[in-house]
Amino acid sequence: MSNILELFPTPVYYSKLEKNFSKKELNLVFKLEQTKISHGKFTTNGRSQDSYVLNNLVFKNRKKEIFKHINHYFNKILNIKNLKPKITQSWITYLDTYESFPPHTHANSFLSGVFYIKSNANIDSISFYKDQNFYLNPNFIEYNVYNSSSWRLPVNTLDIIIFPSFLKHGISTKEDKSKRISLAFNVFVEGNLGNEYTLDYLKL
């Protein structure tokens, strides 16, 4: 009898928001001032100039709903004690035809997340990338979570995804004519890290 030990897996949490977006929320999303972000010669996307969108009173209830998912990640998946999650920054990302977002990570952050305001799972996705790969380049019969160097996750309106901020992720070029809109956020921690005995105590 043989077994597979899934050693040091990276937890990517995905779920669904319960409530549809209200007219007030959607009006705010479309009224926010935008700026175009360039990632090179051929890759751009739109982003809200406001990088604290979830602090807006219009998103008060939505922020509470998001915290339920963040707390689930902290308490049920990571089993963290003596630390509280805190959303630091939050911003809207807009993708039009032929726009994309190259692979990247989020610095100065513990967790990152995104929920989708306007998205179609038949077309839109987020991709995650593994830094450590096989030193060989074999021809796999079928790709799975063990042998893949990237993983594409289709995303729909109201989907929410939370993952460690060190996990590289990106968005491939949007080929259709619809607009894709999502709200991204970073999460840091408040509380006590380590302990005085091991000389690694830190109060945040």
The CATH architecture: Sandwich
Fraction in beta strands: 35-45%
Low-confidence stretches: none
Shape by Cα distribution: globular
CATH class: Mainly Beta
Q: Whole-number radius of gyration? A: 19 Å
Structural class: mainly beta
The overall pLDDT average reads 92
Order of helices and strands: EHEEHEEEEEEEEE
Main sheet: strands, sense, barrel: 8 strands, antiparallel
Number of domains: 1
Give the N-to-C terminal Cα separation.
47 Å
Briefly note the CATH topology name: Jelly Rolls
The CATH superfamily label reads: q2cbj1_9rhob like domain
Q: Considering DSSP H and I runs of 4 or more, what fraction of the residues is helical?
A: 10-25%
**Strand tally:** 12
Number of helices: 2
What does this structure look like?
It is built from 2 helices and 12 strands, in the order E-H-E-E-H-E-E-E-E-E-E-E-E-E. The chain is mainly β. The chain has a single domain (about 15-204), classed as q2cbj1_9rhob like domain (Jelly Rolls), CATH 2.60.120. It is globular, with a radius of gyration of 19 Å. The mean pLDDT is about 90.
